[in-house]
Amino acid sequence: MNLLHQMPISAKAWFLYAGNGTSTGSPAELVLEDFELPSLGAGEVLVEPIYGCWEGNMGHCLERDPIDVCRFRGEKRVVIGNAGVVRVLQRGDGVQGHPEGECAIVYPGTVLDPWDYPVKAFAYDAPGTIGFLSTRMIIAADNLLPLPSPSRFSNMQWAAFSARYTTAWSNWRLAYGTYRLMVPAERLPTPNVWGWGGGTTLAQLDLARRHGCNAVMLSANDDRLKSIERTGVTALDRRRFGNLYYDELRAGTDAAFRRAYQQAELGFARDVEERTQGQKVQIFVDYIGTPFFRATRKALSREAVVTSAGWKEGMSTAFMRATECIDRHQYVHTHMATRQEARDAIAYGEEHGWMPTPDEHVHGFEEIPALARKFLAGDVGFFPLFAVNPET
């Protein structure tokens, strides 16, 4: 037994503390504190984060929506952040491979079902896990996914890739496969694939484009529209239709809002018809959820797929089952990816250049709270990064 493995490891981290049950309406504040990691155990690896990518689940943590992750995990405080690139510092007993200095992304599926699909996520709802908002991390060696060495791409790009792109790979694989079970490629070689959301949606639409689909992404942000165009996906300004954000309660009580929404929805539906020459949308990637679900359904062709691995602005959707059966609309819901899917995504990204362009400004470790506020305010691009330790 290596005695070094028994020594405590000092680190610094931004902690999220449990809510008191009354702290609603405003996001939680992160607190920077020194702490000690537990001793390195068998099958574990000590790593240092190089770059992390701020993910949507981190925003949910700060808003304690849909859960207070601290209370869910039964812990007083937690360190969140499950996307980015780490460097191996030390191996525990029994670890094969993963030499010191190796760069890897962290596979976020900590608790898996019998078919290797993730149930709980590292540094989110999996108890005892410490995420990228720490200067040091201890993780199971099985959760390291080594990066290609050498790689054509930077550690910053791989950090942005780590969670969003692996999730997009898994979701697209199932969504596209589902559509092709209904309509084979020889009958419709170029399906229309539209979407709205964030970086995962963009990654997925880029995959659709690479599969020969007509890919369109909607946004109401000028900088994001430029990023979409640079990816090769057709960018469509959502603001041209008016307010497509549907509020059921307000629509029932505010006649002016209801009329304005109906006009926006009608304009959107017309645009879909025109751009697709009447075919409408075969696969709609909708990571926003409830407020845009009406507009999503208006865009669908018969034999269509609505697909998502997230619920940015609403967890519940409702539809008429009989209508959806008659129209053969399929609904695909996924959560992260299997290890093999993540490995396949990494290999495809390296070989084919399926890779994100990170936000221009990389936030320093001391800027984490400012980045959190900017993310919640919608004042970031598709792939906001933060630096934790130097690259060399």
From TrEMBL:
InterPro entries: GroES-like_sf, NAD(P)-bd_dom_sf
Domain of life assignment: Bacteria
UniProt-listed Gene3D superfamilies: Medium-chain alcohol dehydrogenases, catalytic domain, NAD(P)-binding Rossmann-like Domain
This protein's name: Uncharacterized protein
The organism's taxonomic lineage, starting at the top: Bacteria, Pseudomonadati, Myxococcota, Myxococcia, Myxococcales
